[in-house]
């Protein structure tokens, strides 16, 4: 049975942040130490990001014209504000619900699969919570059938789209008539804050908002469609790094810990993390053992958690600049959108001159430190 990802679609909110302008705002915050300003300058400058998207129009530095008091950023004073977690989560609920529905609708339209054929919905996010949740709203607003099965994967971090696709694949293998709508929405900018803490500054320089969706099914795609065969998945918890990437709920939003050690930990363990993907195919296993994985796999959908993470993966697996071009391009144009990001990279590869039968190795990283990976095939 061949299970494919069809109708892969990406959506971003309309407000664009220019990295240099955001850097200047954070560097100018009152109370920031001289060292903190230097770290801001370095982190933003070396991020590999030029633009990001956000649901927060205030961050464009234009004064509000609706008469309401600023919530996140006071353009008149240039000061970042400190709304509580409830305020941030209320904004998440308002904006995320629309992005879930928009991304889901785009995936259905692109796949040509009617709403009556969707048997399951899997929603993914680590940047907000509410109930009835996005899985319910997607089913209601897209007009899915009343008996559609719904699942939400929450608070898993940047790797969460991979378990969602794996779960969808397992559902389709268990039921050949299944069609699973998978949607990831992350509004990371709701949790950005001014700080002297180096880990917080690095996170502030990277994270952005975005959504991605697709339909996983074993039903044949339209003859002209380009889809991704979902061949195999693997997961690996590294023996170190549990405290180097963390995501906790604080009084003023969710607090991420992202230490400078993360790229080197990933670089050290990425080969072991992808070994299970290649073990079932002798040629791939031998290529990985010989340091020639880049020659055996044409495309690499590396989650661009930051420029240095892509650098470490490229070095460890001996990948060419062209092979890491799609993740670098997504990072440059969109930043790190947590779990949605790897699906943006897959979409970029699918839009490239990738040929029918080309293999893709995808990987994403998150708290634990966890590496989730998948082996895919371009079809069509």
From TrEMBL:
For this protein, the record's InterPro entries field holds:
Chalcone/stilbene_synt_C, Chalcone/stilbene_synt_N, Polyketide_synthase_type-III, Thiolase-like
* Keyword check for Transferase: yes
Recorded superkingdom: Bacteria
The protein's matches in Gene3D superfamilies, at most eight in alphabetical order, are given as: 3.40.47.10
Protein keywords: Transferase
Q: Which CDD domains match?
A: CHS_like (cd00831)
Family, per entry = Belongs to the thiolase-like superfamily. Chalcone/stilbene synthases family.
The protein's name in its UniProt record = Naringenin-chalcone synthase
Q: Which GO terms describe its biological process?
A: polyketide biosynthetic process
The keyword Transferase is assigned to this record: yes
A single GO molecular-function term is:
acyltransferase activity, transferring groups other than amino-acyl groups
